[in-house]
Amino acid sequence: MRLIAISLCCLMPCTVRCRSWRNIEPLHGWNENDTSGTIWRMEFNPLFTSAPTSMPTTATPSDIPSSRPSSFPSAPPSASPSVAPSPSPSTAPSESDPYRPNDPPKNPEQWYFNYDTSANALYGPGHAGIIQQQNNQFNVGYKNNRWGSVGNPPNNYWTEFMDNGFGPWRGILANRNPTRNMCDRVGMQSPIDLRPSGAVCDEHHEVRSRRGDFQIFEDEVTKEIQPNKLRLRYKRRPCRNLNELACQEPDPPNADFPNNWGGYADVTHIDFKVPGEHLIRGEKFDGEMQIFHIHRGRRRMVVQSVTIRATSTGFNSYFQEAIDVFRAVYDINIARCSALRRKERRLVSNAHIILGKNMTSKFHDYSSWGDFSTGLEDVELESKRSLRKSNWDPYHELLIPSIHFYRYDGSLTEPPCGEFVSWFVSDTPMRISLSQLEEVKTILFKNVDENCQPTSVQFGHSVARPIQETAGRPVWQCTPREFGPDP
């Protein structure tokens, strides 16, 4: 039964929750004694009377609102209003999205992966779900987790630490089998939501750090815009034995970790991720800086990590120095791409002249790269000149504002997801500005390679692995109750 007249609505018993003044229709058919099956809700509470107050005016409406507006709608709603969302909403990002995800390669290598968490993704980390294990236990895991089948690239970073590796740290992680893929495991994976499990903090002093000899604008620190992170890779010290004078200098940044780790551990690299990978008591963050150390005694990686919060007033001059070195790499990549497109444009122009007919260049979007007016050499020179000549300290208090932290043992947060990482996550986020966050996103999400191909594997503006199951692991927080700052 469909009621369409306003007068009928006013006379009927108010057992139907009215949605509007017209098209009053319960979900399962109207019954004046049953309202449980309806979803309509009255949008206001009109005062019903037995007779209308007056006829509506036909005068020209005024330009300003009435001082005593009517409680009735000025015009009836649509005769056929939509009552449900579109049956096929678009899943594609808006055209205004400045960081649209890149399509996977048509024939990707076996080591390709991305951060696509949609249900039918082919290369992503999966989406959360309940997973039944072989022992009939149920855990929160990730369905459609394609990272578990990601292979090792020819230049696998972790090969350096294997028995067949190279440099002073060759063999240091051989017993950990760091190239083995563990991304489909549950229980020791990272990142996690950091919530103390009741375990006691056994650390009794802050992380004691030394900035080392290398400056980030020099060649001893390699600046890399990788598909899923920004990385500073530090040159290794000459040899492993720090008791030998020849092994002591020059040295990268290094740190002494509390609770009997024994000695200083060298920084191997620093990664910057957007957004933050770890949560702290359910709170999400805009980014994360992860300082990786190799510990020769325990033969594992130790990561001092700090989450990042962006605010309108949070400009961080010290963090900007790191942004500047990555911006220099980004500008050079864009300039090289621009030069390549200019070269291709000239070749096409010459072909037009020789062939004497219209042609369509596959570089028709060259104009979008045409804002770069300087030559490649000028860009490289200007980038080097603009960098601050400082001995950048990754442990600076503007980067790691607290000496206290959360502790747990876990894994790498990307393939091969090796479970040989001890995490020290600062309990206080680094502060940066919103414009600095956008600059990091631009560098990471809009970078191109030497062939002008976009490199980012982000999805939904994210290169953060989804939160993994803690699975009963000890997680503890070290606070001022356990220790204060060193004298």
From TrEMBL:
- Pro residues bias: start-end ranges: 74-90
Entries under SMART domains matching the protein: Carb_anhydrase
Catalytic activity, as annotated: hydrogencarbonate + H(+) = CO2 + H2O
The UniProt entry, under Pfam families, shows: Carb_anhydrase
State the UniProt keywords alphabetically: Lyase, Metal-binding, Signal, Zinc
Q: Which Gene3D superfamilies match?
A: Alpha carbonic anhydrase (3.10.200.10)
At the top of the EC hierarchy, this enzyme's class is lyase
Q: Where is this region: Disordered?
A: 51-111
What are the Alpha-carbonic anhydrase domain coordinates in residue numbering? 156-479
Q: Could you tell me which InterPro entries the record lists for this protein?
A: CA_dom (IPR001148), CA_dom_sf (IPR036398), Carbonic_anhydrase_a-class (IPR023561)
Q: What is its EC number?
A: 4.2.1.1
The residues the entry assigns to the signal sequence are 1-18
Bias class Low complexity marks the residues at: 51-73
Could you tell me one molecular function GO term of this UniProt entry? carbonate dehydratase activity
Q: Which domain of life is it from?
A: Eukaryota
The UniProt entry's sequence similarity note says: Belongs to the alpha-carbonic anhydrase family.
List the protein's name: carbonic anhydrase
Q: Name the species this protein comes from.
A: Phaeodactylum tricornutum (strain CCAP 1055/1)
